[in-house]
Structures are given as structure tokens and as C-alpha cells.
Amino acid sequence: MEAYPPSYVQHNLPLILLSGLGSTPDSDAPFPDRSEPSSNSHLPPVTGERAEQLLQDFRNADGSDWPWNDRPHKSKAGLIGYKLRAVGRRFTLPPRKASPPPRSPVTTPPSSPSADSAPPWILHSPLSPLSPDSPTFPDGVMTPLWVEKHQDRIPSVLISFFDLETDPNRSSLLDNQLKTEINGIKAMINGSGYRTRHVVVFLGHKSVLQAPEIDERLAIIRRATGLDPKTSMFFLPPNTSRVELTSFVTSILSTLQPVCIEYYRDLTKHARRKKGRGYIPPPTAPPTRGTSQTLSSQGWVVRYEYKLGVFAEFRQEMDVAGRHYSFALAELFRSEGIFETTASWSPQWEEARLLADTIALRIIRCLLWNDFPSEAAHSCMQYRDNIKDIVDRRGKGSTNYGWEAWEARWAKIMAEIIQRVELPVFEIVDPVRDADIVEQRENALYAPAEKSVTVEELLPPWQLLHHAGYWLKISAKHAAARRDLAQEIPEEHRTPPGKSPATQVAKRSRTYDTYLCPDPHVENPLPGREGFDHVTDIVETLDQATPEFDARRQQRFVDKLKLDTGLELMRAGRYSEAISYLQPLWEEMSWRTEKWWRLVHETTWALRNCAAQTRDVATVVATEWELLSNVFSPIRDHTYNLVRCLDSFEGLPEQKSTVSLKAEEIQSFQGHAGEPVPVQIAITSAAHLVSAPITLSDLSISLDGSLGRVRVTHRSLDGTPDNTTTSTSQLLEITVHGESALADTGAKLSLVGSADLTLQPGQTKIFAFPVVFREAGNIRATAASLSMETEKFRAECVAKLPKRDTSSRWWIKVQNGARSKRLGRDEATSLKVLPKPPKMEVRLPGLKQHYYTNERVTLDIEISNDEDDATESTLGVQFLGRSETSLAFSWVSSNPNHVPADGDGGPEELPGHDIGRLAPSTKRIETIVFDAPPDPSDYILGIKVLYHILTDRSTPISKTLTAEISFVSPFEANYDFLPRVHPDPWPSLFSIPDSDNNPDERSIADASGITQRWFLTARIVSFANEPLIIENARVLLDNIQGGALCSIVKDPDASKETLEDTLVAANDLTPAGFCIDVRKLTLEDRRPSTLDLSLAITWRRQTPISALRHPEAEVEQPSEAVTTTLAVPRLIVPNVEPRVLCAATPSPTIPGAVHLSYTLENPTMHFLSFTLTMEASEDFAFAGPKSTTLNLAPVSRTSVGYRVLAYGGAGVVDRQGEEMGRGRWMQPVLRVVDAYFNKTLKVLAAGEGVRNVKGGVLVWVGDGM
């Protein structure tokens, strides 16, 4: 867009002037008129670091470089764009009216009455077609100066910045100066006739809190100047941060946004009134030059519609602006419009074309702003067709370089608009690397049609909006056509005008269209003269298009553009630059794999010519090598001889040049390990039949695996039948030998052979030989290397071999040469070498179905040698599980008959546990010992025996065995945690405890708090599938919290033989009881205590794990004891609220009678009163208080007793197990109510024969008590 005036093509934004801010105001070119309104100020500008930062924030908010769209952007901060310019204290505004023209000299006497009767001048805008000094006078439509006036000179808002000093001795004087300055600026604006809003920003030296009089001073200034406190006056306090400054600028611009829009809305109303007045005003003076005609009514319609569109664009109403621009462009192309009524030789013709181009550009911008890409593309092509029709009918035609220059410029403008608009559909995104993401968006090639386009109105592809690279490619195409047409200009038209006859100058002016392009003598200058650089123009356009195609993975277009660029530079004789484009293209182009041979041939031939001009030996040889291929059409008068391709080069250095080439055309075959595998290497010459034979010096195949490479060297066989045969295919059987020295040093083995490597054009030679692979693994031919050495150079061609090749063939020797047949596999360049089958057997005798956690496991591994010869072997063991750490194990001492290796190539070179030498048909047992993990888990046991036969030490053989080992927990348990009544008295509030002991070494007897007794019952269930012997069970204290001490003992009422050497069968339940005393360290501590406990069960197997390596043992050793630890859920011991505990004791004399003891505890620091009520029942009779009241002092307890006699006797109702005998449960209900809080306390079971149920406790009545 640089060919057009900037004011015509730039996006219009509201103009805001910053007056008096900073020390470096922007440049301000004076308007070409002497009567400019200006402001004179005696106050210095605001300077300093804060002023510079504030000015920088305003400049950062300038939207001139923003994308042409209304989408949110981080730099917009929710604002419309602004054009911000910094001016000094003195600035000027353009005049609203033009100066009157000078009057002619007076010819009448001064005393004559007609001397004073001259009519006054009718003045118009300085840029109006009615003003004589206007550049559009008398019939011009528009000038770029009008847009520049509103965009760069007349602001919608003028912001003045002043320092507000707080010196009390000068505050009144300074305020008066400020009022005078502000009123003077407002008077200047009012005198200019413009509706610019004046805004004042005061930069304070103190805040309002530091100087409260600032509010009063600002109010006085506001009243004296008439400033609006909301939209026209702002105050910036001192010591503001950068973030606060940016927020301050954003708030000012946000406040002024409706003010700016209203300013341009007023200008729109003024222009609309002038358009609707229905007549053309008279000019200031009649026209005396040009056509002597004023602007027609159609021209005035275009002018006003254009103004209305520009004002709408200032308001950012792009849809309204687009409609006005469309009306203006339609008026230009009407049958009575400017183009039809103006001669093509007139300057107004080119001015009208310039205006039409910019209006069309603005229409496209408005359409893309409103997200109508297809309409924008259609508008672009429709305007091109319309202007071409006008140029063909009324202009100088479209068959000259001027039209092609316009086509190239118009396509480039379209690309620049697309880039500036930044449509989301054309946004370049990086490829998504995460394969789990399903939805992935590719970079779009074109914008889809709008939703308003129906299926019946489907647009062809060329009417859709493509990305910028598409338009740049079109621009380069027309630029090349322009170059071709310019080269056709006759020599007499290329002479400068000063040296040409007038008739020639007149003829060329009628023939060539020079709209926005140079004259013929500059377009295609004579030799020795400077002119337009077509090559640079085309190359730069192609360079700009290439990244656009590359970002969208249009690789074919990228390669074509690079080829066009290289050909253009080669045509201009810039061979070094052409090589920089053609060399990478030749090396990486995809046309070879796609077999687009015409483009490959064109690229290679162009690169070869450039390399020949720059004496690039390597490139010449490489391109000549490829040009030998018969897939290309032969070039006339070109000699295809690779050996003599450098004969035209003189003065080459004596040292041979080394050339590295790349190709992809060689094949090989496969086989099995340990046995001879047939291998074939086939090489075919695809050179032209007219080319000379090629003699290779070396042929190498690189391999992945145990074999390094296969190398065939040239051996001349002159006079032999093999060398003189005319067959197109020839099968040669060669002998290869390995380089054993390399094998001894640990390097990969290489095979070397020799044969005749001379290839006739179109001939295929096949080299066949057997290979014996000693090691197992995958073998694949990765690359082939062809070497050729002449007197002047040495060339090496490297070909990467594909993993899959469906055209692989196997060659068979016949009488006249060789014939081929297709292989039944696609991977002819790879071979899987299987290891030699092992005959060593590995077993795990005595392996159990599962083992138990924490136990020590002894595992035997039996190795049996079924080989025909003796072996030397090592054994490796590995445990694999879900945990990060593997199981650690140790080896038990080996068999005393162990025979170590003899050292040379023995098992010390093999990793693992040394087994030693095994004779044929012998066995050996190795034992490992390991501790089972503490948690249930599953492991995979991997065992690998690595051995070699003594007669073939170089071939390692392995045998693997995997087994799954499960570790399960032998026991599970559930728990009951119930309170008990501690027999010891509670501590007294009136006794002082002795706390001399170390707090870390206190025992429960040293604590001074309340002691509570609890009973933990653990019911242990065996999940083992075999009987286990439980030796002991105990509860361990892991942690206690809450300021308490704890002691744990077994149930004192249980017998000593409980859980000692108890045989537990599978799924049997074994109870274990433990008495837990918890005592607070201090009496004042009311926090609940938490206990973290573990149940440790010591057990052993009834039958120990047998070890097969001791079968002779007569006395079986007992199993080792194992301790399994089970986690007990966290237990909470409350110590805050009162509670009621119930204990029952059967009567020793009266059957069916029970003594109930209710213990009431008050652990609080308050006096409490309780009401006790025993409810009567038909199931029993009781003796004791029916209802009573108890008072408990703080930290005290008391007991209430009842004797209960069950009706019907004992042992007649229910049976509850052997441990309880015969009897039944009864439910005495004692209600305990807190008299103060009216809260009913729950009765808790606190002994044998009592259990908790809903609604109270049950008491056992029977013989079992």
C-alpha cells in the first residue's frame, strides 16, 4: 500500500492531542495557509520522569498499529483505537475557511459610487473544490489532504497537562496563570470554529491528604474555566507506580471515548446537511483553468458519501462506513459518473482512479472487519473487473505494463489487508504434540463462506478468501508479466524525454499507462541507465509468499516458489543468489518421491547451470549425476559423461574435490543365524542410453546389528566374458571374507569382496554371496554407498534404504543373464536372526501357591543341562513388582561339586551368579533366600540362565523362566474398643502433684490427670490355607497425642495359655483382649487423646518350608517365628463430657439375680446435678432407688447400685455360646438427665456380661455369668 498516500489507506481513528506533556513533542508540519489559529502559552511544559512515563503510556495506547478488527486484544484494554500525538504548548489548527483571493486593481476613481459596491467573497474550506487555492479546484473530487486534516491536524479532544504546585506563597499566582491559560486555549478553539473538547490534567506535587487545600483550588479553577469535573478535569497524585499510571491513562481514554464519538457524529450531521441542501454552492471565484467547469453533482455525491464513510470509520462503525463507501464507488462507475465524463489524459482521471482504488480498499477492510471474507473476495474481484472494463473502454487498455503493474499492486494490497486484519481463521498455530487430544485444528488455506450463503449459492473456490500467500503469488505472477511486457518496449520509447522528439513523447503518452508506475524509459531503461528493478520486486514478493505457504504445510507450493525465485535470479545473472534458493530445494524437494520428473529436471538443470557459472565443482558433479537418469528427457547438445563433466573448468586445484551425493535406489536380502544366508546386492544404472559407462570404485552396504557393513571393491576384468556381455542383467557370485582383526578388538565384523563395478547404461548387476551370522538380533541394511574416483574428483553417493519396499525382487541366474521374481515380503532389507534354541532346563521345585508377608522364604532353582556338550553358565534372578523397590535376595552357598570355569572366555564374561561347568545330563540346584514384603503384593520372578557350550564359546545362549509369586497377609482382625471402670480413685483438685521428673521420662504413675481404662478386643481371623501356630499377640503403642500417657497389658482375667502356641486352622477366629489405661499428664487438660496402635502377631508354620538341597536331613527343623503387624484404626479417648458406665456382677447365691453398678463421672470443672430414674419392667424386678438426684463436684465420680432379679429363672430362654452358657439378655433402662442442661446421658457398657444396644444396655442373666 506504499504506492498510495498514507492518509488514503490508513484506518481512521479519533485524534487526541497531548499538549504540554514531555520534553519531546511529535513533529507537526504546518498547514499550507497563513491564517492558522494558534495558541500561545507562557507556562513551561510538564517534564520529569513521571511526565515521560505518562507520555509513554499514552503512546502505548495509540491504536495506529493495532490489527484492523474489533476483537479483544491485550493492548486495547476494552477501548476503541485512538490516534495520539504529543504537541508542545504552542500548536496550530488548520483554518476553517480559505483566504479570500486578491482583488484586481481598481480602475474607477475612488470617489465613484461603484468603487465600494464590490460584492463580498463567498469563502469555503481551503480544500473545497470551490476555493481557488484548493488542489481540487475546480472539478476535483477529493484530495488526501482532507483526510490528513481530520486524522492528523484537527483533534476531537485536546488534553492539556499542567503542574499543580503546592507552594502556599505562590498558589494564588499559579492558579491565576492556570485559569488564564485554560481560558485562552478554550477561546482559541472557539475562535477556530471547531468543536474540539478541551480536557485538563493536573499533575500534583502533593496528594490531597498531604495538602487538603488542593480540593478547594481545583474547585475554584473549575468554576473559573467552566470545565466539566467528570469529563474535562483530572488530577494525578504524586508517587504513582507504573501500574497506576497505566490505569490512570486507561481511565482517561475510557472517559473520553463517548466524547470522541460524539464529536465525529456532529461532523457527520454537518456533512449530511450539506449533502441534502439540493444545490451546488457558487465558488469563491469562477474557474479560469482546466475545463473551466465546476464539479458535477455526481462528483459532489461521491465527495459527501466518502466524507460520511470516513466519519463513520472514525466512530468505528465499519458497517455504516462500508455502505457509504459502496455508494461512493457506485457513483464513480455510473454512466454519468466521473470515469465516463472525464478524459483519460486529464489529471482528474488518475485522481479518480486513485480515489476509486482507495475506496475499494476501504470497502474490503470494512467487510473483513465485520467478518464477511467471501464478500470481501468477491468485492475485490468485482472491482478489478470493473476497473479493467473502464481502462479498456476509456483508458489505454490492459495490454501494457501499466495494467500488469496495477494487477500486481492490487493483489499485494489484498495480501497486506489480510495480514493486517488478522482473521482468526488464518491464525498460524503450532501442531499439537499431545496425541491424546482428539480435536486438532489445522492451519486454514481459505476462509469458509459466510453462514448466509445457502447451498444453492455455493461459491467457486476462487471466490473464497484465501490466505495472504495466495495473493502474493498472484502479485508475483503479474509482476513477472509486467517485466515481460516492459522488455517488449521498443528502443525509441526507452529514450528519456529530453532526448526524444516531441512526436515520440506524445506517442508514448498515448500508448503506455503510467498510473502509479514509471515512464517507459525508467520501466525498461537503456543499458547504462538506472531504472525500475523488476527482479528485486518479484523476488521480494515471492519471499513474502513462501512463509505463508510453509506455515500451512503446502510444501509443493513452497518448492515451486523457491524454483521460481531461483529461475528469476538466474535470468538476471545473479547466480550466487540463485544457488542459495535452488541448492536447498534440490536436496529436500518432495517431487522426487512423487515422481514429478519435469519439475525435478527443471530444478536440477537450473542448479547445474548456476553451479557452472560459479565454478562449484561439487554441485556440478552432483547435478550431472542426477541428470544421467533416464526418467528425464535428454537435453539436446548436452554430453552425458560424468567423468568429463569438469573438462570445461580451467585452473582447478591439484587436490581432488570430494563430492557427497544422496540417492535411494539399492536393495539387499535376508537369512537366519548360525547358518549360511544368501544375500544379493543389486545395482541398476538408470542413465540415458547415449551416456558413457560408469565405473564405480567402491560399493558398501551399512548394516544395523552384529554385522557392520558389506563392502565390494572394483576389480577390472578386461577381456573376460563377464566384462564384454551385452545382457541388461548380470548375476555375479563373489566371495567375501571377514576382517577378523576387527572382531578381536570388539568392533563390528565387516565383510569385504571384489567384483567388476563397471555399469553400462540401463544395465543391472547383481552380486550374490553367503553370510553366516553369529549373534542373534535384528539385522537391517540402512544405507548404501557408491564411490567413484576420476582424475579430477572423487564422488560418493549415499542412499538411505527404505524399511519397506514393495518392489523388492530376487534374482535367478539364467542362460542370457539373470531374471527376477517378486519377493513375498515387503521388508527385503531386514533380517531377524533368531538365537540358537536353548536345551538348558530351569525349574522351581517346591514353589508354593503363595507366601505370607514378613516371612523368610527359601527358594530352590534347579538347572538341568540337556545339551550334548558341557556348558559354562551363569544365573540371573530379578523380582518385578508394582512397588518402586525390588526384593533383595541372597544366594546360599553352592553345591560342593561346583566346577569353576577355566578363565579363558569363561562365565566371568557373562553377568550373573556363577554356576560353573555342567556336564551333559546333569542337574544343579541353587538356592536364594529373601524376606517377603510387609504388605500384600504380587511379584514376577524372572530367572535367566546365560551359558555357552565349551566347543563354541563365541555364541551365547540364554534360557528364561518367569513365575508369579503372591504374598498375602496370613491374618486379619476386627476390633472392639469399650470403656471400663478404673479401680483407682480420681485425683483431687486440692492436692499438688510432684512434677520433678523429666517430662520425656514420665511413666503413667507420674501423671497427675484423670485415668481412664479401656478394653480392646481383637478378633483374629486366619486367612491362610494351612494351619498356623500363633505364639503370641500383643498390642504396640505407635503414637499417642493429646497430652496423655498410656499403658497396655493383656486381659488380666484371661488364662496365661491364651494365644500361646495356639494352632489356628483356616478361617478360624481367635479373640485376644488387652487392657489399656490412659492418663492425662495434667488435671487441667481436657483435650481428647488419640491412640495409634498396632497388633503384632508372632506365628510360625506348622510344617516348615522344605529345602530340596537338604533331602538327607532326618530331623525336620522347626519353622522360624514370623511377626506380622496389623494396623489398628486410630482410637479416640474423650475426656470432656460426663459419662455413665454400667457394670454387672452375678449374684453368687440367688440364681437369676444380678448386681448392677452405675458409675457417674464428672471430668469437668463445674458442679453438676443429675436426675436418675430406673424404669420398671415386666421382665425383672429391681431393688434400689426408683428416682434420685446426685450432685457431683468437679473432677469426681460416684456409683449407684441396683439388684435386679429376672423373672422365670436363668437358662430357660436363649443360648449365647459356650463361653456364656445358657441364659438370656434383659434391658434395664436407667435414665440419667443433667438437671442444668436437661441433657440425657447415654449409659455405656463397662464390663463382661453387658453390651451396648440402641436405647441403652443389655445385661446377661444366666449361668455363664
> Percent of residues in beta strands?
25-35%
Distance between the termini: 109 Å
Low-confidence spans: 432-439, 664-674, 719-724, 740-745, 903-909, 1111-1115, 1209-1219
The rough form would be described as flat
Number-wise, the strands total 51
Tell me the helix content: 25-40%
Total DSSP helices: 23
The profile of the biggest β sheet is:
8 strands, mixed
Mean pLDDT: 82
Instruction: Calculate Rg over CA atoms.
Output: 53 Å
- Structural class, by secondary structure, is alpha+beta
Short recap of the structure:
Helix content is 26%, strand content 28%. The chain is built from 23 helices and 51 strands. Strands 6, 9, 10, 12, 13, 16, 17 and 20 form an 8-stranded mixed sheet that branches.
Structure description:
There is one protein chain. Helix 6 (242-275) packs antiparallel against helix 7, helix 8 runs antiparallel to helix 10 (347-369) and helix 10 (347-369) runs parallel beside helix 12. This protein is flat. It has 23 helices and 51 strands.
Provide the fold topology.
Elements (H helix, E strand, L loop, with lengths): L5 H4 L5 E5 L29 H12 L22 E5 L56 H10 L3 E8 L6 H22 L4 E8 L8 H13 L7 E4 L5 H34 L21 H18 L3 H15 L5 H4 L5 H23 L3 H22 L6 H21 L46 H20 L14 H10 L8 H4 L10 H18 L3 H17 L3 H14 L2 H4 L2 H18 L2 H11 L29 E7 L12 E9 L9 E2 L2 E7 L2 E8 L6 H4 L4 E5 L3 E2 L1 H5 L4 E7 L2 E2 L4 E9 L4 E13 L3 E8 L8 E6 L2 E6 L7 E4 L6 E4 L7 E2 L3 E10 L5 E11 L7 E3 L21 E6 L4 E9 L5 E13 L2 E17 L2 E10 L30 E12 L5 E14 L2 E7 L11 E3 L4 E12 L8 E13 L20 E6 L3 E3 L5 E8 L6 E10 L5 E7 L5 E4 L3 E6 L3 E11 L7 E2 L6 E5 L3 E5 L4 E3 L1 E3 L4 E4 L2 E7 L3
